[in-house]
Amino acid sequence: MLIPLGTRTAPEDLVGLLLECHQRIRTFTRLAQEVGRRAELPAAEAVEACARVERYFVQALPLHVEDEEASLLPRLRGRRADVDAALEVMHAQHAEHQAALTALLAAAAEVRRAPGASHARGRLLAAATALSAEFERHLANEEQVLFPAVRALLDEGAQAQVIAELRARRQSAPGR
């Protein structure tokens, strides 16, 4: 397996849960980059890895975006000017990621159809690298400004409510 996903104890605090989502975003972009980079990778492994990448970005990533847009943004908005600016950037970047995500998903599907094609692997590597760069800027904004604001500005009750919303989204997600 290219990148082991393993099992770990899930964090119980809100910021820990959000950071875990960020780690999964990084893991799946790295997985796509590895498939694109490693020409010697067996076709079956490349196909399986691309299916995992597609599944994550189609099913799980939208839940994380909704967590931020529907649960964090309204609770943090209006609390501090720096937080409001970071929220605006976050919101805009969510929309901006769509083109890069579409390119990544198309390239992953192409590799699944023709896992031995070097041009398909090259497109996947390019798409994953571009998306990774976008995500790193995005995740850094959240990790440096928004997550500390969650800890500073949301009391335990508000954080518990957000955690309940996150879990409810995942319980009601298609494919569950």
Characterization of the model:
With 176 residues, the chain is mainly alpha-helical. The protein has one domain (14-172): Up-down Bundle (Four Helix Bundle (Hemerythrin (Met), subunit A)). Helix content is 82%, strand content 0%. The mean pLDDT is 93.
Give me the secondary-structure category: mainly alpha
Radius of gyration: 17 Å
* String of helices and strands: HHHHH
How much of the sequence is in beta strands?
under 5%
Major beta-sheet overview: none
User: Could you say what the CATH topology is called?
Assistant: Four Helix Bundle (Hemerythrin (Met), subunit A)
Total number of strands? 0
Give a quick rundown of the structure.
With 176 residues, the chain is mostly helical.
Properties at a glance:
elongated; mainly alpha; single chain
Helix-strand blueprint:
Elements: H1 14-37, H2 43-76, H3 81-113, H4 118-153, H5 156-172
Helix pairs in contact: 1-2, 1-4, 2-3, 2-5, 3-4
